[in-house]
Write a structure and sequence with these properties.
Layout (H helix, E strand, L loop, with lengths): L1 H21 L8 H4 L14 H6 L43 H11 L5 E6 L2 E6 L3 E3 L11 E5 L2 E5 L4 E3 L9 E12 L3 E6 L6 E6 L2 E12 L2 H10 L10 E6 L2
Antiparallel strand pairs: 1-2, 1-5, 3-10, 4-7, 4-11, 5-6, 7-10, 8-9
Amino acid sequence: MTMILGRSIQRVALEAQCQFLALPPTFLLPLRARLSTTANFVKPNPPPESLRNAGVFNVTPAPLSTRPRQSALRQSTCTQPSSPLPPPPTSPLPPLSPSVKELLPLLRAQPSHYITAHIHARPYLLTLGDTLRLPFHMPLVRPGDVLRLTRASSIGSRDYTMQGAPYLDERLFECRAVVAGTEAEPMRVLEKTKRRQRHVKHVKTKLRFTILKVKELRVRSLEEVEGEREAGKDHGGDEGGVEVGNKGV
């Protein structure tokens, strides 16, 4: 009986070794088979009936994985285009104070005016016909565009001055400037080096600046301001206090 069991065990071992040797090496397999990420579950062959009756092998088959195979494709979620939002309700413009109504006709009667306009939080003292070189380049404008300056802290003449807190109401004045062009400074080369190193890095910079020319500066009358308030019109500019108008000649 012992000899029969030994021959059966040896036969099973030889069969398993032959099955292992029958598989080709991994470098001979195709690339698709080597890169496959899906798990292939092979059901093992049960041992012979004689060995199970003898009690040599007591093998319980492992349960197959019941988890569903994860798909590599992702379902794209189709979002419906949202409906456009309704425009915000326009609040009525505040009325002018009595002091402004009293000073505005006197200031308007003066022959010439000046204004302290603010562009991107920088104040500029301007009058009609001045040429302003901004310390930066405005990328969204072209030569000939007309800009309306809507933010000012003061406007005045030789005898009167109106101050804002901190800015004036943009309905009280009209200040427009035309883009004359751009200027560029000479090329500057900055040498950068590190301690205990012989390599010198050269950084080249060439800044550009926008040139504006003031072509209109006037104080509006009370009739224009009150008529604009009744119509509910608002000439609000952007954060920098500049509103782009039509292209000039």
